[in-house]
């Protein structure tokens, strides 16, 4: 059974995107798709890094913990809000912190906004950063528009059947990539 980490990218007070991270954790657990944990960047409260982890002299314990969890994950879901047409500095900081841990790691991206576009403007810029560090971005996207209307504070959907239908396609693509990677590595 694969292990999936969900990165909740927002560190803002009153953040709404964390609702989506909570939803995915419940969805994966309820459907027995794998083991799952949320890596909440708001809880990590990373400083602004001036160097990648593999070049740091004395890395912080929470940095080593985060790197270890990414390395041990079979796949990642990044849940990120869109702020002014871009993704938050917190996720860029976390992505740039690591390098080898991202190599060929299947990563699915869910973008979130309270507006009608669901954060779709951020997908290409985040995807490009992930490509540059050789992560494997899953082709399926999961934009969440009007998140306040679709999910409550605990990640419970207003229309579970409709959201679960979309999540099945999205997580299915991630799981396919995880399995493909596992098979390729078994052949090497």
UniProtKB/TrEMBL annotation:
Pfam families: FMN_red (PF03358)
Assigned keywords, A-Z: Oxidoreductase
GO molecular function: oxidoreductase activity
Xref: Gene3D superfamilies: 3.40.50.360
Superkingdom, taxonomy of origin: Bacteria
Entry EC number(s): 1.-.-.-
EC category: oxidoreductase
Location of the NADPH-dependent FMN reductase-like domain: 3-146
Protein's recorded name: NADPH-dependent FMN reductase
Organism expressing this protein natively: Ohtaekwangia kribbensis
High-level lineage: Bacteria, Pseudomonadati, Bacteroidota, Cytophagia, Cytophagales
